[in-house]
What we know:
Helices cover about 45% and strands about 15% of the residues. The protein is built from 23 helices and 20 strands. The protein has an 8-stranded mixed sheet. The chain has a 5-stranded mixed sheet with strand order 2-1-6-7-9. The longest helix is centred in the last third of the chain and has 24 residues, at about 610-630.
Amino acid sequence: xxxxxxxxxxxxxxxxxxxxxxxxxxxxxxxxxxxxxxxxxxxxxxxxxxxxxxxxxxxxxxxxxxxxxxxxxxxxxxxxxxxxxxxxxxxxxxxxxxxxxxxxxxxxxxxxxxxxxxxxxxxxxxxxxxxxxxxxxxxxxxxxxxxxxxxxxxxxxxxxxxxxxxxxxxxxxxxxxxxxxxxxxxxxxxxxxxxxxxxxxxxxxxxxxxxxxxxxxxxxxxxxxxxxxxxxxxxxxxxxxxxxxxxxxxxxxxxxxxxxxxxxxxxxxxxxxxxxxxxxxxxxxxxxxxxxxxxxxxxxxxxxxxxxxxxxxxxxxxxxxxxxxxxxxxxxxxxxxxxxxxxxxxxxxxxxxxxxxxxxxxxxxxxxxxxxxxxxxxxxxxxxxxxxxxxxxxxxxxxxxxxxxxxxxxxxxxxxxxxxxxxxxxxxxxxxxxxxxxxxxxxxxxxxxxxxxxxxxxxxxxxxxxxxxxxxxxxxxxxxxxxxxxxxxxxxxxxxxxxxxxxxxxxxxxxxxxxxxxxxxxxxxxxxxxxxxxxxxxxxxxxxxxxxxxxxxxxxxxxxxxxxxxxxxxxxxxxxxxxxxxxxxxxxxxxxxxxxxxxxxxxxxxxxxxxxxxxxxxxxxxxxxxxxxxxxx
Length: 633
């Protein structure tokens, strides 16, 4: 299913006021008011065929314009897309509220279904169709309810909004009839998902949670590092998928990917316990057990990471089954600790599974890792040991997928040294990869996507180096086709990047002008030059409205000031100042502009023809040197 056109009577943002948005490259719809009816018609428009459509992708549309022109407002309105009735409120007290909701609810949606049939859905009281396409009148409450219950027509769309911007709303997931309606994935949302994941991981797994959840959060510094751990976990789940489809080496060659893991065992707040010893038996017992195990750890064999894992399991056992087994001991020998763990394995599936996880991790760590200089972190490096790297990725995925949470509870994971650009690039793909795995995060929660996914990406180019912007669209389309092979996907994104726009025909672009009278203003697509395969300067000058400036305003003003100073001095200027102006002119990067300003300089202050030619010769030599370096590279 493809959304071809949406008309909004009014939106919550206020800027979408009787505004229509064309998303199709083939058709151009518009709405006019004839004094009584809102009339939908087809504009005289020479459209093109959709070059993006395949077995998964329905269409790709870019929204462009300066800051504040309404790009995010359109994406947010599309995320809330529906076309139904609003229950009438007769109370005079709430009449204004009802009228406001009613005005916001009025909508026209034009869809092309999977058979190619185009249908027009509307909920307007006075509507006329001049397009010739089939009309579905949604003012019928019964029809609207049936569409919602059966997730058909426009209700068969899951909207997914993604942005790397820290200003993106936390959102979450809305669903009905076991089908996801809309999903929001932003840094704030991922924080919330991480909190939910670890909370459920503790509650369904560890015994210690039943006594003191705060212990784990504090000891593992999860309040501060939970987001980092979860981001890295998501990265590993994505890397696992790349291994499975044979593309991991391509990815790993372009991103920093070393995996650092560590754990910790300590009393996170002994001063709090000491204050409450007489009033909190649980805290006292926890403090005693931690003290005894911590004191014993230096004498236990093996690496720090695995010792800490065994120490946490022993702590859980003693806190759950009682302290009688270590009451008379100031020091707990390693052999006794393992004996105690093995004893309680029999008949206790949780401890049995936890021990199995620890031994699995221990085997991988012993065979395939490097210990960092500080001795507290273990490193998996793909370059040095691709087999071990893959085994660890598979191991973590299995722990996550099976929902067995002991090791993931007590493991800090970090994908080392990612830049903000790498992080932003990867976020889009790891978050998309996370959607099919939501049921593993939200326990007892089985919600599937609908037939069509409307993917809304805000500020697609945020943090990305220009070189990455050139490959992003190709990479995104490949990923969508691979990850969502069971669905139909329509993509709408907002961007400021001319490099991303050069992958999009103008017929697939929504051109926004400055907001006029508080309303979004959309340009006709045919008024713009073709963008597909176009050079960056032309796209910037046209699509992004840079016709007023071809350089930074500071540089432009600086050069203009030099020109004014030359014009106004009438050849009368101190030599020192003249030399500084000359040096400033030679900083100008545009050779034609530099030559013009230099000519003005020599006209004003004089200078022999020979001197002038020498300067021009030096400029030519500098330009030749630049071109030769490019040629040699």
